[in-house]
């Protein structure tokens, strides 16, 4: 029930109080929720960048179509996904799992071969569609964790991904940006959305009993 109350409380904050900063402890928890997210085959196909430097946040404004949110927020998380699958990337979490669980080194060979047979024959574009979906799972959990901590957040995909990739040098890291999540504290007086009712489709329309 507490989670539902937190989800009722949260909203896509439109105006932040730039004087209020989110503690490192809270930022860490919000990122940790994404790290703990389930992903397809557990491969964690995305990474999270934590931007707190004002000069970088200011550079995000034109990239985010002039949305001042990204400069006024305390931190901006950027969720970036693998630009494609490679043999090395597919193997990486299974090597770690084998080591951490003390399993025989060939434990996941058949499984990873099956994954490689699927992903390595797809185009990078097809693979990015899949890796980006995993980023959305982590993103959702970070939004929920922020709400639980009473930290405001704005889910954002309204930005130029190529420009953000360039700013964060993501290509060299084999990543492409997917989403931004500014974090901070609402401007109680200046946010037009704050007093507005939360609107969702009625349950009877949203839920289809079969
Ligand atoms: C994937 C995604 C992308 C979004 N992109 C933006 C954005 O670029 N700018 C913005 O102000 N809001 C953005 N939103 C916020 C949505 O408009 C908002 O979540 C939705 O209207 C529901 O309202 P609520 O979050 O206040 O409950 C985005 C939300 C999601 C989930």
General description of the model:
This protein has 9 helices and 4 strands, in the order H-H-E-H-H-E-H-H-H-E-H-E-H. It has a single domain (2-85, 122-206), classed as NADH Oxidase. It is of the alpha+beta class and 210 residues long. Strands 1-2-4-3 form a 4-stranded antiparallel β-sheet, sandwiched between helices. The protein binds flavin mononucleotide (FMN).
Mean pLDDT over all positions? 97
How are the strands ordered across the major sheet?
1-2-4-3
Alpha-carbon Rg, integer: 19 Å
Helical stretch tally:
9
Model regions low in confidence, pLDDT < 50 over at least 5 residues? none
CATH hierarchy: architecture: 3-Layer(aba) Sandwich
What gap, in angstroms, lies between the N and C termini? 25 Å
Structural class: alpha+beta
* Shape, principal axes of CA atoms: globular
CATH homologous superfamily (4th level) name: NADH Oxidase
Cofactor: FMN
Protein name: Nitroreductase
Family: Belongs to the nitroreductase family.
Domain Nitroreductase: 8-185
């Amino acid at each position: 029930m507490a989670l539902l109350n937190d989800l009722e409380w949260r909203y896509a904050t439109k105006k932040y109080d730039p004087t209020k900063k989110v503690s490192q402890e809270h930022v860490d928890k919000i990122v940790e929720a994404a790290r703990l997210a389930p992903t397809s085959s557990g491969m964690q196909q995305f990474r999270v960048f934590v931007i707190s430097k004002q000069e970088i946040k200011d550079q995000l404004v034109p990239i985010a179509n002039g949305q001042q949110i990204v400069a006024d927020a305390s931190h901006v998380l950027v969720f970036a996904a693998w630009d494609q699958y490679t043999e090395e990337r597919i193997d990486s979490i299974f090597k770690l799992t084998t080591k951490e669980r003390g399993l025989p080194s060939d434990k996941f060979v058949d499984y990873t071969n099956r994954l490689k047979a699927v992903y390595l024959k797809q185009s990078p574009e097809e693979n990015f569609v899949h890796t980006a979906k995993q980023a959305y799972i982590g993103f959702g959990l970070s939004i929920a964790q922020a709400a639980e901590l009473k930290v405001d957040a704005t889910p954002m995909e309204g930005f130029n991904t190529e420009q953000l990739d360039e700013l964060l040098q993501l290509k060299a890291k084999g990543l492409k940006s997917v989403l931004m999540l500014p974090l901070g504290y609402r401007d109680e007086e200046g946010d037009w959305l704050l007093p507005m009712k939360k609107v969702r489709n009625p349950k009877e329309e949203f839920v289809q009993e079969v």
